[in-house]
């Protein structure tokens, strides 16, 4: 009997894949991430260029962005939970891209007419433009946060269905896209700005976001059509059905909808306040509603049984051991040039991709919770090289030098350029592979062993880092009820930004290269504390079975479903 009719041909399988909701999500995420990476890289360069090669505007922008997400993360997540998925995704997409387009146009005007703007009203027009750019760019970042929560933390889960392996594969693919765009997108816009101008760079980014917005909007609609489950938030629907049966006729007559009664972050005073009471509809109540959302979001996060897993991930942000502006700036003071750093960044990206591949393989062999434990051990082991580098030949580490030396020198207004400014000069060129290294000649080091060990540890640790990140991400996706997915991920973003802010404050307090070794030790300590918290979470759920890498059929790793948080 011929069964060829029941089997799909190769061309049909390929066609089905490229038209599937999964592939369309990948495409939309690639477009969104590419635009984000170009803009995040370019806006920092633009702000430095506009303010006379000073980092002031960049520092203000970074502080505003981090502070906004820290304060508004729970509120953004709550908004994601309370509104239909398509409305949230489309609104976030339109706001984000529109803000970037407006910012690009505004920056083009400033670059073109900066000299004239300086003379108008003693420069207040130019200052107003700076404030507008930072404000609008911050709104774009908040909209990007909402997009990330709704697509990466919610839509991906729904498209994967109940298939944990498919969810893991989708998470890994999304992370690989992040890694690739993080390297390639800044290179593209950097080349455009180098061979063209900042004016052309602004125009290119604005046109890109306009085109990308239209394509992403279409892709979102296609994914929504192909996945009917996205139209219904199952958790809320089930709760509404139960509440319709449990609610008294009087409550329904008074206008209390099942939605209000079912949502844990909306029914704070439903039991004691009637809808028409002054307290519920008064001005004071409306003004304080964001504060209650903020409080309830953090309470809900604390009551999750994956609380310590989320905290462990946040603690990994309190580190200077990454390819951010701090570490690359330090590398310049140790004699590494831009060419070497670009190669190291490429090796870091490859290491991160290996981590995402390792995650899917280890999860299939050992299970999700054990994957996080193994990844944590791997990351900590690699970071020991960074600790060794502090005491290796060539290290500038010197406890006899006050870590506050450069800060004091800068505040006292000494004319000599402090080492901190050398580091910050490196920061300006570290993210841009097309920009030449500082013209200042760095002192020749006696040995490169210390800095080599440092970056060897950082690069090798990326395998464990990204595997661990994916583990915690999937734990949150699988163990947070659907109606709270947005607010919990919003608070998680806030925690990440909080620890990230602390690491920048730590660098500000001790900016000189002699103190960098101390920052390395503190960073490794925070990473260790994060993994200790995860170990406690894993041991609580698996017990001694944590150390038995049994087959997927034999293991039982189900984390108990979290109960709804009790509002205070």
Automatic annotation (TrEMBL):
Q: What topology in the membrane does the UniProt record assign?
A: Multi-pass membrane protein
Cellular component terms (Gene Ontology): basolateral plasma membrane
The record ties this protein, via SUPFAM superfamilies, to:
MFS general substrate transporter
Give the location in the cell: Basolateral cell membrane; Membrane
Q: Where are the transmembrane segments?
A: 55-80, 92-111, 123-143, 299-320, 340-361, 373-392, 448-472, 516-537
Any one GO MF annotation of this record = iron ion transmembrane transporter activity
Q: Which family does it belong to?
A: Belongs to the ferroportin (FP) (TC 2.A.100) family. SLC40A subfamily.
Q: What's the protein called, per UniProt?
A: Solute carrier family 40 member
For this protein's source organism, the top of the classification is: Eukaryota, Metazoa, Chordata, Craniata, Vertebrata
